[in-house]
Amino acid sequence: MRKIPLANFLSEKGVELGERCGVEIPLKFKDIKDEYQIIRDNVGITDFSYMQKYRIPAETGLDFLDSIFVGNVAKIRFCRVLHTFLADDQGNIIADCYIANNDEDYIVFCESIVDDKNLDQIFEKNGSKEAGLENITDSHVVISIDGVKAWAVVKEIFGSDVLGLPYLSIETYPFEGNDISLFRAGKTSEFGYLVMASKENADQLMKKLLAQAQKHGGGLCGCRVHDELRLEGRFFNIFAEGLEVKDPLVLGLQWMIDFDKDSFIGRDAILSRRKHGLKNKIIGIRADSSSGICVGDDIYIQGEKISVVKASCFSNILKSYLGLALFPIEVAYAGLEFNLKSSQGPKVQSISMPPIVPKSLNVKLDEL
Amino acid sequence: MESTLQATIDRRIAVINPIKEELIKRLNLPYKPEDLHEDISLFGAGLGLDSLDALEVVLCIENCFKIKIPDNDPSILRSINTLADYVLAQKDIQKGTQ
Hints:
The structure holds 2 protein chains of 2 kinds.
Chain A: H1 7-12, E1 16-20, E2 23-28, H2 32-41, E3 44-47, E4 52-57, H3 58-68, E5 81-87, E6 93-102, E7 105-112, H4 116-125, H5 128-131, E8 134-135, E9 140-146, H6 150-158, E10 169-175, E11 178-184, E12 192-198, H7 199-215, E13 219-221, H8 224-233, H9 238-245, H10 267-276, E14 280-287, E15 298-301, E16 304-315, E17 320-328, E18 337-340, E19 347-351
Parallel strand pairs in A: 3-13
Antiparallel strand pairs in A: 1-2, 3-9, 4-7, 4-8, 5-6, 6-7, 9-12, 10-11, 11-12, 14-17, 14-19, 15-16, 15-18, 16-17, 18-19
Chain B: H1 3-27, H2 51-65, H3 80-97
């Protein structure tokens, strides 16, 4: 298992560590509900160093990255970030990725459901050594700052111009004698930033971010609460529905794919499935607070089993359970009623996602 | 399939399909209607539309359904499904007042 550089620091703060896909992760610090409120009402600091991190020179990296990822890397403008994914030869998703055009090089963050070794092997098989791909996973940390007040934390540390960063952009800032990379990106529906720093600066950066977050009523969070936040905001979660379903078309990830590109890993399989049309689609469901929704629960309609739950959580905003389930295409629509667990089981409704309105939606950074 | 269930699905399809076709046409999106999951976020993550595109989305709904979208409620514009919910709710209101 790969250890994360900030494990000691986080342990001193009372973290419960766990493992996900061969990497150590901070699961939680306190009650998940408290961490949830920290992000929805204030700002949470989470160690995302479980991500695989790479750097590649722009000169050699463009063709390499464009030939393997499903998105169009050539179209990423300077200082912008592309959200895309990496598929295997069968066209199934294996890593959810951000690719940043940082002028002289590209920076790649991966959330992968294969371990570090397997991911590296896929890159090597496709020419990563010749292209100059540098794996910086062990030498760097990534810290996520999320919440309705996340902007205030990064503004205090990096200056007012961070407020002008558009969603999915990257900027470089000096920090303690080194450069750090700041991504404006997140999957909580609130404001979100990812900071990448070298391991030498990790403790100092974490302390500074945490001190600022605490000034705004925030604190440390684990990765588990992000699973709930992602589902509430209907952000794709590779560690939940991604791991369960794997087919990007069934998952509704067509928006990450450039179907006109000549090559990417899994292209033939994905295009073939697209041509033949979908038989199933993943959609949102909701049940009242008295009946929980669990991954693996069957869903019935008119006495017939038609679906299985692939992701679930309790929504603190809605005070009800939410889930994602795989429905036959004929009934994969919001606004329908089904039975959970048995043909006479509790009612669940298929719903429009996202079902919540985050506080950040009504904050205008350019007016602050 | 039970007729009331099919009627509910047909009513939703009658709103979703024109929205998808009109968005693809107006915004020159490189997708087929079936590529667009109804829950895709229209702005930020997902399709990544900007504030200028927002005007096109509003015009799309007004053009397709003759329904006005209030400019003080950004939550309506989050996804194709949230747009469809708003259109269907407005149609219900119109039906109730006739």
